[in-house]
Structure formats: structure tokens, C-alpha cells
Design a protein that fits this description.
Number of helices: 11
Radius of gyration: 22 Å
CATH superfamily of the largest domain: Type I PLP-dependent aspartate aminotransferase-like (Major domain)
Oligomer: single chain
Strand content: 5-15%
Number of domains: 2
Helix content: 25-40%
CATH architecture of the largest domain: 3-Layer(aba) Sandwich
Structural class: alpha/beta
CATH class of the largest domain: Alpha Beta
Largest sheet: 7 strands, mixed
Bound molecules: pyridoxal-5'-phosphate
Shape: globular
Order of helices and strands: HHEHEHEHEHEEEHHHEEHEH
Number of strands: 10
Length: 355
């Protein structure tokens, strides 16, 4: 990657924090730690010791999962931390800009605002099923555009980017913008990851998470995948010891091949339930449109969103409302078969009262 053009100039020569050395078998009198673990501290690496500055074994396991090299991956506290790090690494406050399609995941806007990066929006149209016109999007960029967010499948619309469009964007913005592909929901889509494009496109950054299909949202673990020199730079910005020992050990365990079958089944069940729920929406007169989705949620346009939300709240069901351009839409997360049964029962009751 031509870091010269993409990374903030003042960070290009940043050296990683110089942490106390951690050498297996040596007595550690260099880190002001307590020499004894507390009773009941059964972690493989007890908690009186700092974790590794970067969790090397976990990074290797995640790299295997995502088919990239270990030095092309940074373990982060969820994708959220990855988004924050990328804003800070790429954008100078008050000078640089970030391009985001609309509607999309609101956290890009949030961290751009915190960093003081200017937001350029490319608005997709619902009448065109939120499809991206990649050339129109490229036209929105200017000389200050350092980062472009691509959420695929997109939250909240559920649609996917084609690799053809992605390659077009990567090539049009080579040496100018980091193209950040957020694949938080890719396990629910029948589509290969953009990671396979990394070899030929050094301005590509892919974000993955264990919060969705791997059922580990509470553990806060994500991956930022890019070329090794870019990862080295982002790593220098991330807090030392970012990943806490209990989380590292829990995630290492989750990623053992023999433990993955359970979550693979969860994902298959969610895909099945998603397709069943989307089909069922057609039977409710107050649902005016249902968009197809490659994620574990889908978006519906409804006659009266406020009435639907109030009705669902009375049935102890929480749906997601965004307002603004989506004021007549609601995003529904696919739940368990029992949760979905309750959703459909509440929808049926509402339809009956309106009949
Ligand atoms: C598109 C997208 N990216 C990232 C995240 C955040 O994921 P994480 O839990 O890994 O921070 C979400 C959460 O809803 C999301 O919708």
C-alpha cells in the first residue's frame, strides 16, 4: 500500500509502544506485576501478568480462519475498535474526509465525527433497492478522501457489494483512499470474503467480527485485515495489551475446530429463519415492502412504523427504528424459532385488528 498518501503524515514514522519484554522461562522483574496469582485464577496465563502486547496465537488462529497471513491481521476489541483506529490512522481532523454510503451502519459517521473528519455521503435509493452505482460513488470523492466504507452485507438494508464493483472502487482509488469493507455479517451470505482481493489491492482493508455468526458479541473480538505494512502502522496506534487474557483464552477455545460446529449450525438456522420470516412478511397488509437480505436481519417498509413499534413493545418485542429517510421502515433481527413465532403472532394480531 502506498501508505504515503493514505496514512496521516505525522503517524507514518510512529514506533510501537516499547512494552516490557515478555520472555518464556525468564523471571519477570521488569513490568511491576504481582508475582502471585489470586486464588482461583485458573487462566492459562494468570491475571497477575499482563497479556501479550498482541495476542499472537489468537491472531494466528484468526488468520487461518480468514485465509490471510498472521502479519496481515490485527486483533481488535470488536469491529468498532477497528473503525475507530482506521479513522484515527487515515484522517487528519479538519482536513481529510471519509466517504460513506447512506443508509449504512451509523458507527462510521460516529467515529468520523469524533476524529473531526469531514463526511461525504453517497445516498442510495430505496426505489433501486439501495444498489450502489460505483462510478457515481467514485465521483463523490475528492483529493481529501482518505477512507471509503463499504458495508457488505449492508446494515440495515441487507444488500451485498459485488466483487466487480469492489475491484472498480479499489482500482479507481488506488494510492488515494483505504477501501474498508465491513464484513460483520458475511457468514450469513452465500458469498466469498473480499479478503481474497487483498493480494492484488493494497488499499483494501477488511473488517471481520466474532460478534454475529460466532455468537461472541459480549467478548468484543474483531479482526482488521490489510497488507502487513498497514497493519504494523495501525498496531502502533492501538493500545498496548488491548486484548484481555480471559477474552483471548475464551476466543481461542471458541475457534478450536471441534467447537465451531455449534455456531455453524446457529448460522444455518438463522439463514433458514430469515428466509422464512421474509416470506411471511408478504401476508401482512401493513408491510408495504420487504427487502431481501444476506444478513441476520432484514428491512421492512410499513404503513405506520410508530404504531407497529408500539404494538411490538406491548408484546415485549424490540425492533430497530432509524427515522430520517427510513422513517417508514423498521429493521428486524432474526431470532430463534420461538422468538420469531412471537414476532409473527404479534404481526398477525396487528393485521387482524386493522382488518
Ligand atoms: C456493519 C457492522 N459492523 C460492525 C458492527 C459492530 O461489530 P462489533 O461487535 O464487532 O464491534 C456492527 C454491529 O451491529 C455492524 O452492524
Amino acid at each position: 500500500m502506498s501508505l504515503v498518501n493514505i496514512v496521516r503524515p505525522e503517524l507514518r514514522a510512529l514506533k510501537p509502544y516499547a512494552a516490557a519484554a515478555q520472555v518464556e522461562g525468564m523471571v519477570r522483574l521488569n513490568a511491576n506485576e504481582m508475582p502471585w496469582p489470586r486464588q482461583g485464577d485458573n487462566f492459562r496465563r494468570t491475571l497477575n501478568r499482563y497479556p501479550e502486547v498482541r495476542p499472537t496465537r489468537l491472531a494466528g488462529m484468526l488468520a487461518d480462519r480468514y485465509s490471510c497471513a498472521a502479519d496481515e491481521l490485527l486483533v481488535t476489541r470488536g469491529t468498532s475498535e477497528g473503525i475507530d483506529l482506521l479513522m484515527r490512522v487515515c484522517c487528519r481532523a479538519g482536513e481529510d474526509s471519509v466517504l460513506v454510503p447512506e443508509p449504512t451502519f451509523s458507527m462510521y459517521r460516529h467515529y468520523a465525527n469524533i476524529q473531526g473528519a469531514r463526511l461525504i455521503e453517497y445516498t442510495t435509493s430505496r426505489s433501486n433497492n439501495f444498489a450502489i452505482d460505483v462510478d457515481a460513488m467514485i465521483d463523490k470523492c475528492d483529493a481529501t478522501t482518505r477512507a471509503i466504507f463499504v458495508c457488505s452485507p449492508n446494515n440495515p438494508t441487507g444488500n451485498l457489494w459485488s466483487h466487480g464493483d469492489l475491484i472498480r472502487l479499489l482500482e479507481a482509488r488506488a494510492n488515494q483512499s483505504a477501501i474498508i469493507v465491513d464484513e460483520a455479517y458475511i457468514e450469513f451470505a452465500n458469498r466469498p470474503s473480499a479478503i481474497e482481493l487483498l493480494a492484488g489491492h493494497d488499499n483494501l482493508v477488511v473488517l471481520r467480527t466474532l460478534s454475529k455468526a460466532l455468537a461472541c458479541a459480549g467478548a468484543r473480538c474483531g479482526s482488521l485485515i490489510a497488507t502487513a505494512p498497514f497493519i504494523e502502522l495501525v498496531s502502533a496506534v492501538q493500545a498496548p495489551y488491548a486484548m484481555a487474557t480471559p477474552i483471548v483464552e475464551i476466543i481461542e477455545n471458541t475457534l478450536q475446530a471441534e467447537n465451531l460446529g455449534e455456531t455453524e449450525q446457529f448460522a444455518r438456522d438463522i439463514i433458514h429463519e430469515r428466509d422464512r420470516l421474509i416470506a411471511a412478511m408478504a401476508s401482512f397488509p401493513f408491510v408495504q415492502k420487504t427487502w431481501s437480505s444476506a444478513a441476520n436481519f432484514f428491512l421492512v417498509q410499513v404503513r405506520d412504523a410508530a404504531a407497529l413499534l408500539a404494538h411490538c413493545t406491548r408484546h415485549q418485542l424490540l425492533l430497530r427504528y432509524f427515522g430520517g429517510d427510513l422513517a417508514d421502515c423498521v429493521r428486524i433481527t432474526v431470532g430463534s424459532a420461538e422468538e420469531n413465532r412471537r414476532l409473527l403472532a404479534a404481526f398477525t394480531e396487528l393485521a387482524d385488528t386493522q382488518a
